[in-house]
Amino acid sequence: MAERLNLNRVPMPKQPPDVRRRNFNEVALGYTEEQAVEEASRCLGCPKKPCVSGCPVGIDIPAFIEAIRERKFDEALRIIKEKNSLPGICGRVCPQETQCEKECTLAKKGAPIAIGRLERFCADWEMRTGRRIEVEKAKRTGKKVAVVGSGPAGLTASSDLALMGHDVTIFESLHAPGGVLIYGIPEFRLPKDIVRREVEYVKSLGVEVRLNFVVGKTATIDDLLKEYDAVFLGTGAGLPLFLNVPGENLSGIYSANEFLTRVNLMKAYLFPEYDTPIKVGRRVAVIGGGNVAMDASRCALRLGAEEVFVIYRRSRAEMPARAEEVENAEEEGIKFIFQATPVRFIGEDWVEAVECIEMELGEPDESGRRRPIPKPGSEFKMDIDTCIVALGTTPNPLIAQTTPGLETTRRGTVVVREDGKTVKERVWAGGDIVTGAATVISAMGAARIASRSIDRFLKGEPF
Fold first, then answer.
1. Are residues 414 and 233 in contact, defined by beta-carbon separation less than 8 angstroms?
2. Which residue, among 168, 173, 174, has the nearest Cα to 155 in the 3D structure?
3. Which of 79, 137, 56, 161 has the alpha carbon at shortest distance from 444?
4. Which end of the chain has a smaller Cβ tally under 10 Å, C or N?
5. HSE on the CB side for 445, CA within 13 Å?
6. Does residue 1 have a pLDDT over 50?
7. How far apart are the C-alpha atoms of 299 and 279, rounded to whole Å?
8. How many Cα neighbours within 13 Å face the side chain of 39?
9. Cα(318)–Cα(323) distance, rounded to whole angstroms?
10. Dihedrals phi, psi of 338, to nearest 5 degrees
């Protein structure tokens, strides 16, 4: 086997940093056919398929890679779509390096197969060629399922249940489907044409999408249960967390949720073509160290900020953001201030400065990362004129407040069994509404498990 090892991972072409920091076009440009075949040819085809164990939706990864190597791109995409209806999205935003690629045999040599990039290649090939790869669909059962939310969990549950033969209706509160994929992730990381195309694929399976429908106001879960045989909750976690420090209510301080929704869903980056103004100053501070913080900081830069600082309370090693996104941000000129956290914001009406305190790292906490501890007397001030708070999110309480019998935790997340079943009869849930803010692919994996349980219930089988 040693003779077959090829550790020359094919790099992904990207826009140069000095160019891309001035536009919202996609940064990563994707593989050519030759590059995809070259990368696929590095796969060892391991009989035990360790990479599959790292995929939350269980794609037969060696099989689709083998098809790419043989230039059977349609077959490769068919294999992917058997388990994943959103390959163009997952190939771009899922953290493969901590999932399937982490389990790749070649990861031990520091050069795992670029599984996510190959998945993206297949989806882009379908779009570029105008092909439509279909997956076999079961006969209609006549059973009806309501899916609340059209983010990654809702889209996955809907496509799975539709392929199982059930009639599915998605209820989405916003005016466009896609959930966090459409309002939270910037165009330069996930083009909205990709989201729209993959939503259209889900609709082509027979899924109906009803927009501007706020479950909990337009209708309750109990109202839906009168018309539908089962309900799946995939509403995500859209309620932002804040620092709760003095001055946080000053103008010029955004939650990352508001900031990114204005930029992405409401297209503030195309103002005045789209009538969504957004004020970004010269010196911007972004608080947090996850992918959302990277997205917000890179958007602020593209919207005209002269300097953007990411302030994170732990060290670089503890950052939850993808290494690739941190690298992209650094290349574009984002500056990082580690082991510090704000203690107050300063200003009259508009924020003028932030006072931070340095942190030292203690013993690991429940997250497995070292706990940040303030260093007395280490306060320092930074002049800023915009701040974006990206500390994470929790589920919106509306559904819990309007759904008797739905059990939630003190964090507002919905309590479910291993199969996604809630304590409320005929109601399942999955994704961020259960876990709190997590990854796209983990939400999809949870939705897949729940959809199988719903299918068993609808067929009268033990679930």
1. yes
2. 168
3. 56
4. N
5. 19
6. no
7. 12
8. 25
9. 11
10. -95, 160
Q: How far apart are CA 297 and CA 318, in angstroms?
A: 18
Tokens found for residue 328: 């992209």
Q: Give the Cα separation of 237 and 392 in Å (integer).
A: 9
Alpha-helix residue ranges (DSSP H) falling in 303-414: 323-331, 398-401
298: nearest Cα among 310, 312, 288, 315: 310
DSSP string, 277-307: -----SEEEEE--SHHHHHHHHHHHHTT-SE
Residues contacting 109, CB < 8 A, separation 6+: 5, 7
Cβ neighbours of residue 167 closer than 8 Å, sequence gap 6 or more: 140, 142, 143, 144, 145, 206
**pLDDT, averaged across the chain:** 94
Asked if 117 and 94 touch (Cβ cutoff 8 Å), the reply is: no
62 within 8 A of 49, measured Cβ to Cβ = yes
> Taking each helix axis from N to C terminus, what angle separates 291-302 and 323-331, rounded to the nearest 10 degrees?
20
Query: In the Cβ-directed half-sphere of 284, how many Cα atoms lie within 13 Å?
Result: 29
Residue 394, both tokens: 């929790």
Q: Assign residue 274 a region (left: φ > 0; alpha: ψ between -120 and 50; beta: otherwise).
A: beta
Q: What is the length of the chain?
A: 463
CB 240 within 8 A of CB 183: no
pLDDT digits (tens, 9 = 90+) for 333-390: 999 999 999 999 999 999 999 999 999 999 888 878 889 999 999 999 999 999 999 9
Of 425, 418, 449, 409, the C-alpha closest to 237 is: 409
> What is the per-residue pLDDT for 131?
86
Q: Judge residue 309's burial from the number of C-beta atoms within 10 Å of its C-beta, 0-12 exposed, 13-18 middle, 19 or more buried.
A: buried
pLDDT value of position 168: 98
User: Which residue type does 405 have?
Assistant: G
Max CA pair span of the chain: 69
Report phi then psi at 134, rounded to 5. Answer: -100, 150
Indicate whether 92 pLDDT > 90: yes
Alpha-carbon distance values, 374 to 40, 92, 357 (Å)? 48, 37, 7
**What does the block give as tokens for 54?**
């790292």
- The two three-digit tokens of residue 402, written as one number: 């309007």
